[in-house]
Each structure stands twice: as structure tokens, then as C-alpha cells.
Design a protein that fits this description.
3% strand, binds zinc ion, 56% helix, mainly alpha, globular, 6 strands, single chain, two-stranded parallel sheet, binds seleno-captopril, 23 helices, two-stranded antiparallel ribbon
Length: 599
């Protein structure tokens, strides 16, 4: 057979890269058409284009593996071939590939179009997850109404896709095995490029669990005060429906009933945005301005022409927020059913972080147009949002009254509010893939999907279902990422490394000194308009996945591993306060690992 020299290989990579970009652009266009307008024809078109793309990928792969790339000298050539030699789901026979794609598309449709009847007005049965149910879970203080919304949504979403999910697992594992992985869980962690990755995550969780147990104990007490012993036991599991969020993954919506020091100005931009007549565009323009103040990139015109920044009327679509790269170096979009709230302003920054990453690495070969690892991609926007969220910044941009001052109690309130977002999230960010890794490995079989889910929800989050659960239910399927086949450990990684990035960028911006953290507390840092910080961040972002992630992390933080020091430094004052407060009220820290109430 013809010997493929390293020179041949470089020519081949150039040709293949152009073709990959072309196919990825067509696939993204078809996927966008479906996700933004769910109809039979947009589904058929999406499935057809995806099948064509998979055919092309399989043909290309047959050529790629002919190159003796492990023998080549150039590490950049080897790295591209290494990534290109993993074909992914396209390794499946065509009919199975199409079946898998259709199953995931249909599960997303069920999730995105699920509707329930109103608790009070049982005739009104057109309530969607976004915005109606999200709003009800955030605002209602009626445990029975909250229980209704929690249980009815699960009937219309997760329970309805259980059978399809079983087939999804089988096909996803079959594809992984065709790529020489033992099962899909091994393929899902490959981009972290470390056999120790899952142990590192477990170590991080053990370091952070005490912080979580403290805020869990405090919130449980406040909910017990609010709802009474019959609804919330003082030392048990927290009922999942009372935490202000459909999945109990962030607890910001119970801030107002658990504020450490009531009567203070809440650090919330909602009222100011409404007062100033903000629309969704204005929220995204504000985010863009933060990035350009760091000397990072503005959005191209197509972004504003083609993004969907608020929920369109009269059609079904996937409202779950997402950012899109169309791989032509010009077309980047966000789809978000934005409402004028503080939380959606933060989500807007999260999504704009994805697009900023796309812009920073758009010059790279297609195979490198990814995060250094997936956690990096989730951390970009959140890192910026840590600055945006500060009272100092919100005052500066006119979204908080200029006279709201930073007395110690207001400051603690602020840290507590951030803890309800960031600390509360950690066990959920972990257990989502703990459950899926075991499902892919076959340790969790379909006949104990739900029981294992609630065992993990109890062990890691200390929460329980508000109504009996059985294997007729499929609660993991009521979370978008489960039915959309989006791995989740990336968010746990993000919630750890975003504080490492924040600490490093704040130091660069002269707003934090790790040797004297009291002088300029990390949680007050705002890197706004710091070109030094922005240039440093940009240096890392522009690498995409062309280098192993420890090298990318080292550029910004000077270290090569994930560690909880940034997060612990940020929340140190809160941890101190929570420990004192919980001791004062004699709270039991943690919860009994008794058998779940609902088998
Ligand atoms: C906003 C996005 C799109 Se990447 C998202 O899915 N997030 C952001 C935070 C965690 C996770 C979730 O909503 O579950
Ligand atoms: Zn994201």
C-alpha cells in the first residue's frame, strides 16, 4: 500500500478540514432549523442531513486511519489525527445511526412541548416549562401547588420517554464499543485526557461537601420555619419541590425566604431592568459590552440578525438555552427564551461565554474548535458573570441603586445568594453523570433507574421526592441533558475552575491578592474594563482544544490542575458565618442516609 508521509498527512488534513467545516455548517443549519421550530419537516430534514454527514464522516475516517500518524514527528499533526481517529456515533450502521438520532430528537420534542394543567384552574392546561412552570416554582409558596407542578411535569416529560431512553442507552453503548471504548461512559470522559479524571472529581467533591452540608442545614432550617415540621423535617431530607427550581439544582429562588439579614437591598437587577425598559437584546448587548471592555471580541452582525433571544409565538421549539457555532467563521447564534430577570441576565452571560470561545478559536482547524475540555466551555460566561453579579458592578452599570451600600450584613447576604447558586449546584452537577456512567456501564439497569436516581439525590443532595416514586416514573428524563444526550460533569468542572479563573483574572486586574485575601475579598472583584485580564483570558480561549487542558489552564492560573481553592477562598466568609449560625441554632449538619421514603 502507498506509504503516507508526514507531508502527505499535512496536505490531507488541510483537505479534510475544509470538508469537515462544510459538512458541520450544513448539519448545524439543519439542527438549528429543528431546534428553533419543531415540525415533521424540520425533523425529517435534520435527520437526513445528519445521516449524510455521518456517511461522509465514516468515509473520511476510513481514509484517516490509513495514515501511520503515531509515527509522525509534529505533535500538532499527531494530536489532530488522534482526535480525527475517533469516529463517534457515525460508526454505527446507517439504520442504527438514524434510529439513535430520531430517538434523541423525539425525546427533546417530548421534553420541550410538555404541558400541564394549572393547579388552581384545572381547565387551563397549556403551561410550559418555560416560562410558566419555571415562574411558578420560583414564586409560589404553596407547597401543594409546588407539589402539583413538580409531579405533573414529570408525568408529561420524563415518564413518557423511559422506553426510548432504554433504546438510547443500548445504541449509544454500541457506538462507543465500535470506537473501542468499553462503554459510553469511557467515551464521555475521553476529552479530560486523564485516567484519574473521575477520581479527581470525587476528591473535589469530598473537599467541597462540608460547604454544601452547611448551606443545606441552614436552608433546611429556614424552609422548616416557612412551611412547618409537617412539610420540612428539621433534620431530614429537604423535599425537592420547595427549592425554587424544577430540578432543585440551584436554590436562588428561596433567597427571599431565607435571607440571613432581611430588610437589605437584594442584589438583583430584575427591577432596574424592568424599570429601564430592558428587552432581551439590551441584556445581550450589555454582556457584549463587558467582553469588549476586556479587549475580547464583539458579536458579528449575523449574531444579532439570526439569534433567537426571546420565545417566538405560535410554534414549538427547544427553549433550553444554547449557543451555536456554524463553523464558517462568521455565523454564531444563541437561542434563549429570555425573560427580563436577573437570572436570565446571568444565563445570557453564560451563553455569550460560549460564543466568545467560538470567536476566539474560529481560526483553528475544525477538530480544535472545542473547549480545552467541556468544563472550560461552560466556565467562560460564568467567570465573567462572577464580576457582573457584584453589587459594585451592578451599581456601575445602573442596575442597582447607587446608594445601596456595602455594609457587612449586605455583603453576607450577597455571598449567601451566590452560595445558593454555586454551592447548592455542586452535588447535582456531580450526580447527573454518576447516574449515567453507571447506566452506561450496566451497573444501573432499567428496572432500578428511578430508585438509583433517588438514592443518589439523597446521598449527594440530601433531598427527597415530595410524592411517592416508583419504576413507573423516570425522573432523570425530566432533566434536559438526560434526554438530549448532553454530558453533565462539565458543569461540575466549570463550577470549580470558574473560581480558579476568576481568582487569577482578578489578580491580573489588581483586584485580588491571594497573599492578602482580606484586603480585597475575591467576591467583590469586578474585572470589568481590565484589558490585562481580558488578554490573559483570550490567550487561553484562542487555543481551543489544540493543547491538553492543563496547558490551557496554566496560561491563566499558573497551575495545571482543577482545585477547589478558588471556590473556597471566594466563599470563606460565608462558610464561617454558616458554621457559627448553624451552631447557634443547634442544626444537625447533614441528613440520615435512611432508606429513601419512596422506593
Ligand atoms: C444554560 C445552559 C446551556 Se449549556 C445549561 O444547560 N446549564 C447552565 C448551568 C447548568 C446547565 C443547566 O441548565 O442545567
Ligand atoms: Zn453552557
Amino acid at each position: 500500500a502507498k506509504t503516507y508521509t508526514e507531508e502527505d498527512a499535512k496536505q490531507y488534513l488541510n483537505k479534510l478540514n475544509a470538508e469537515l467545516l462544510q459538512h458541520s455548517n450544513m448539519a448545524a443549519i439543519a439542527e438549528w432549523a429543528y431546534a428553533s421550530n419543531i415540525t415533521d419537516e424540520t425533523l425529517q430534514n435534520k435527520l437526513k442531513v445528519a445521516a449524510d454527514t455521518a456517511r461522509f464522516q465514516k468515509e473520511a475516517w476510513k481514509e484517516t486511519v490509513k495514515y501511520p500518524w503515531t509515527t509522525y514527528k509534529d505533535p500538532n499533526v499527531r494530536r489532530q489525527f488522534k482526535k480525527l481517529s475517533v469516529l463517534g456515533a457515525a460508526a454505527l450502521p446507517e439504520d442504527k445511526y438514524e434510529k439513535l438520532d430520531k430517538i434523541v430528537s423525539d425525546m427533546q420534542n417530548v421534553y420541550s412541548t410538555a404541558k400541564i394543567c394549572d393547579f388552581k384552574n384545572r381547565e387551563k392546561c397549556d403551561l410550559n416549562l418555560e416560562p410558566e412552570l419555571t415562574l411558578l416554582l420560583a414564586k409560589s409558596r404553596d407547597p401543594e401547588e409546588l407539589k402539583h407542578v413538580w409531579a405533573e411535569f414529570r408525568k408529561e416529560a420524563g415518564d413518557k420517554v423511559r422506553k426510548q431512553f432504554v433504546q438510547y442507552v443500548e445504541l449509544t453503548n454500541e457506538a462507543a464499543r465500535l470506537n473501542n471504548f468499553s462503554d459510553a461512559s469511557e467515551e464521555w470522559v475521553k476529552d479530560y485526557e486523564s485516567a484519574e479524571f473521575r477520581n479527581q472529581i470525587q476528591e473535589l467533591w469530598l473537599q467541597l461537601r462540608p460547604l454544601y452540608e452547611q448551606i443545606h442545614a441552614y436552608v433546611r432550617r429556614r424552609l422548616n420555619e416557612q412551611y412547618g415540621d409537617a412539610v420540612v423535617k428539621k433534620d431530614g431530607l429537604i423535599p425537592a419541590h420547595l427549592l425554587g427550581n424544577m430540578w432543585s439544582q440551584t436554590w436562588g429562588n428561596v433567597y427571599d425566604i431565607s435571607t440571613p439579614y432581611p430588610g437589605k437591598q437584594p442584589v438583583d437587577a430584575t427591577s432596574a431592568m424592568v424599570e429601564k425598559g430592558f428587552d432581551a437584546i439590551k441584556m445581550f448587548k450589555m454582556s457584549e459590552e463587558f467582553f469588549t471592555s476586556l479587549n475580547l471580541s464583539a458579536m458579528p452582525d449575523t449574531f444579532w440578525q439570526r439569534s433567537i433571544l426571546k420565545k417566538p409565538e405560535g410554534r414549538s421549539l427547544i427553549c433550553h438555552a444554547s449557543a451555536w457555532d456554524f463553523y464558517d467563521g462568521e455565523d454564531f447564534r444563541i437561542k434563549q427564551c429570555t425573560r427580563i430577570t436577573h437570572r436570565d441576565l446571568i444565563t445570557a452571560h453564560h451563553e455569550m461565554g460560549h460564543v466568545q470561545y467560538y470567536l476566539q478559536y474560529k481560526h483553528l482547524p475544525k477538530v480544535y474548535r472545542r473547549g480545552a475540555n467541556s468544563g472550560f466551555h461552560e466556565a467562560v460566561g460564568d467567570t465573567i458573570a462572577l464580576s457582573v453579579s457584584t453589587p459594585k458592578h451592578l451599581r456601575k452599570v445602573g442596575l442597582l441603586p447607587a446608594d445601596s451600600k456595602d455594609d457587612p450584613q449586605s455583603e453576607l447576604n450577597y455571598l449567601y445568594n451566590m452560595g445558593l447558586e454555586k454551592i447548592a449546584f455542586l452535588p447535582f452537577g456531580y450526580l447527573m453523570d454518576l447516574w449515567r456512567w453507571d447506566v452506561f456501564k450496566g451497573k444501573t439497569s432499567p428496572d432500578n433507574y428511578n430508585c438509583e436516581w433517588w438514592r443518589l439525590r439523597q446521598e449527594y443532595q440530601g433531598i427527597e421526592a415530595p410524592v411517592d416514586r416508583s419504576e413507573d416514573n423516570f425522573d432523570p428524563g425530566s432533566k434536559y441533558h438526560t434526554i438530549a444526550s448532553v454530558p453533565y460533569i462539565r458543569y461540575f468542572v466549570s463550577y470549580v475552575i470558574q473560581f480558579q479563573f476568576h481568582a487569577a483574572l482578578c489578580e491580573k486586574a489588581g483586584q485580588f491578592d491571594p497573599k492578602d485575601p482580606e484586603r480585597m475579598p475575591l467576591h467583590q472583584c469586578d474585572i470589568y474594563q481590565s484589558k490585562e485580564a481580558g488578554n490573559l483570558f483570550g490567550k487561553m480561549l484562542s487555543l481551543g482544544s489544540s493543547k491538553p487542558w492543563p496547558e490551557a489552564m496554566e496560561i491563566v492560573t499558573g497551575q495545571r490542575k482543577m482545585d477547589a481553592s478558588g471556590l473556597m477562598a471566594y466563599f470563606r466568609p460565608l462558610l464561617k458565618w454558616l458554621e457559627e449560625e448553624n451552631k447557634k441554632t443547634g442544626e444537625k449538619i447533614g441528613w440520615d442516609a435512611s432508606a429513601p421514603r419512596h422506593g
